[in-house]
Design brief:
By secondary structure, the chain is of the alpha+beta class. Helix content is 20%, strand content 27%. Strands 2-1-3-4-5 form a five-stranded antiparallel β-sheet.
Length: 81
């Protein structure tokens, strides 16, 4: 699944266009490397998102095309930044 879509489906970022813009601006990295929106997300990847002076780090646990709002949190696990 594309990185921008994963960020939206997992609700780490609310909108896909915002996720796309964050990737283009270089604020999203996967496994320590800057990632483009087209990056193919796999289970075990570590995604880091920078918002200003705040950073969010999460490990991918599941990849699904669609998921209910209540189950979105089960797609990833927050890691200490």
């Amino acid at each position: 699944m594309r990185l921008d879509k994963y960020l939206k489906v997992s609700r780490l970022i609310k909108r896909r266009t915002v996720a796309n813009d964050a990737c283009d601006a270089g604020r999203v990295s996967v496994n320590g490397k800057a990632a483009r929106a087209s990056y193919d997300v796999k289970v075990g990847d570590v995604i880091e998102i920078s918002f200003g002076n705040k950073a969010v780090k999460a490990e991918v646990l599941r990849v699904q095309e669609t998921v209910k709002k209540e189950e979105a949190g089960e797609m990833f696990k927050y890691l200490p930044a």
